[in-house]
Write a structure and sequence with these properties.
Layout lengths: L3 E5 L9 H8 L4 E7 L1 H4 L3 H20 L5 E4 L2 H12 L3 E5 L4 H16 L3 E5 L21 H8 L26 H4 L8 H6 L6 H14 L4 H4 L12 H5 L5 H15 L2 H22 L22 H7 L6 H13 L4 H14 L4 H11 L5 H12 L14 H8 L4 H6 L9 H9 L19 H18 L1
Length: about 475
């Protein structure tokens, strides 16, 4: 009946939390703890701000159950070992993570705690299918999405676990840091108040968001998800990124919608959930996905490093309206429409010939739904250097894409103030959120395009042909 340390990470919820369920099943008090260790300290500004909001919500939910969220700062192993000494805990349990840095840290923590005589266990709390459980007929891992989807589409997925009715508490709680002392949102500066208006924080908000989507928007999802001018997406990415809702809850919701209504919408939604799984599958099996070209022959491609054009791209001042609209949406909301993510990535990597790592780093800094696997795979897909990538010669034309997916210019007008005589609140919010050092104003003239679209396309194709000839 000794206490169990529940080490929370990207599973900030009470419902369908296998680690929490397992900790309660041990019979003794459960001590939920979140550790601000060096890996978390290294997150970008927007993910850290969003984490702070999620931790605040989770602390309130735990308090309503008569429990607490213990906050500690420091290396994970030393922190868990110190808590075990303070509380008499003889076990620690957590949900597995699959990126290379977390795997290395967690393996060391587990081995060291066991060597000290503690039980140390991890469970799957993040994915539908853990990476080593999905194999090709030859025993390898899948490198292309469509066969991966076919391999898992018919697999059984366990039903979500219920939220516990009570969480056993200790007679005396260990000390906890104050969340405000961590100042996780400090780097957001004045942008925090702007982005906060667009966040749906916590487990209850995530479930409400899923319910509303399944009730009203999943039917036309297959077509509507690509429309920049419509609210056709689930917007669950920020909640999934921190585990405020589990993939299993989302999956079973999508399956219920498919059984109820049929059609392309629910099935397309299920495929998007599996696309997230595929990203983690690839990152687990090929850790270089996060830091280097997945296709190693692309190491010879003449991408530019960071440059003045990339800075214009970051600031939403390229002179291409749909690109600038997307980059400003990101700065105001902390998210970006999925179709727009493909467009801005293609434009940076191909029209501006800038390395995908420059864009990946900016998204890592500014996305409230930052997910290490999806971010890396998305950028490499757009650049042409990754698995299951779009061919490099498939270069999105921002102008024609805008006319197709924003035919009435609603998206561009919503986010680019200079394109409207009477800009709305969302467009003007960009200038409230952007750093004052950028010196931007809605009254300034809209910039001329950085590069003619046909010129950028031809330069990219010439570089690609040279690479192919060299290989």
């Amino acid at each position: 009946m000794t206490p169990t340390l529940l080490w929370l990470r990207r599973d900030l919820r009470l419902g369908d939390n296998p680690a929490l369920t397992a900790a309660i099943a041990r019979g003794g008090p459960v001590l939920p703890v979140f550790i601000l260790d060096p890996l978390v300290e290294a997150w970008g500004a927007a993910p850290r701000w969003r984490l702070e909001a999620s931790l605040r919500d989770l602390a309130a939910r735990l308090a309503a159950k008569g429990s607490r969220l213990i906050l500690r700062r420091g290396p994970a192993l030393e922190t868990l070992a110190a808590l075990a000494d303070e509380t008499g805990a003889r076990a620690a349990i957590w949900s597995r993570l699959y990126d290379p840095a977390s795997r290395e840290r967690d393996a060391g923590v587990k081995a060291a705690l066991r060597a000290q005589g503690l039980e140390a266990d991890s469970v799957n709390g993040s994915l539908l299918f853990e990476p080593w459980t999905v194999q090709t007929g030859q025993g390898g891992f899948y490198k292309v999405y469509t066969p991966f989807w076919r391999a898992v589409a018919g697999r059984a997925v366990d039903a979500p676990l219920p939220e516990p009715g009570a969480i056993p508490a200790p007679e005396r709680w260990p000390a906890s840091d104050a969340l405000e002392d961590w100042a996780l949102g400090r780097a957001m500066r004045r942008g925090a108040a702007v982005v906060a208006r667009h966040a749906a924080v916590g487990e209850a908000a995530a479930r409400d968001r899923l319910g509303a989507f399944l009730e009203t928007r999943v039917g036309p999802y297959a077509e509507a998800r690509d429309r920049l001018d419509r609210d056709g997406c689930s917007r669950l990415s920020e909640n999934l990124a921190l585990g405020e809702i589990s993939a299993r809850v989302v999956w079973h919701g999508g399956q219920a919608a498919l059984a109820r209504t049929g059609g392309a919408g629910p099935e397309t939604f299920l495929k998007e959930i599996v696309w997230r799984e595929f990203a983690w599958h690839l990152l687990y099996h090929t850790p270089r996905l996060q830091t280097g070209n997945w296709r190693e022959e692309w190491d010879a491609f003449p991408w530019r490093g960071d440059n003045a054009d990339a800075e214009r791209w970051r600031r939403g001042m390229t002179g291409e309206p749909v690109i600038d609209a997307a980059m400003r949406e990101l700065y105001v909301t902390g998210r970006m429409h999925n179709r727009a993510r493909m467009l801005v990535a293609s434009y940076l990597c191909k029209h501006l010939m800038t390395h995908w790592r420059v864009g990946e780093a900016w998204f890592r800094e500014t996305l409230t739904d930052w997910d290490p696997a999806s971010n890396a795979m998305g950028w490499q897909w757009a650049a042409g250097s990754g698995p299951d990538a779009a061919p490099f010669f498939r270069i999105f034309n921002p102008a024609t894409q805008a006319e197709k997916f924003d035919p009435r210019r609603a998206y561009r007008s919503r986010w680019v103030a200079e394109l409207s005589r009477a800009p709305g609140a969302d467009a003007l919010s960009f200038f409230d959120a952007a750093p004052a050092s950028w010196g931007l104003s809605p009254r300034q003239p809209y910039p001329a395009p950085l590069i003619a679209l046909n010129t950028g396309r031809e330069a990219a194709l010439d570089a690609y042909k040279a690479l192919r000839a060299a290989v």
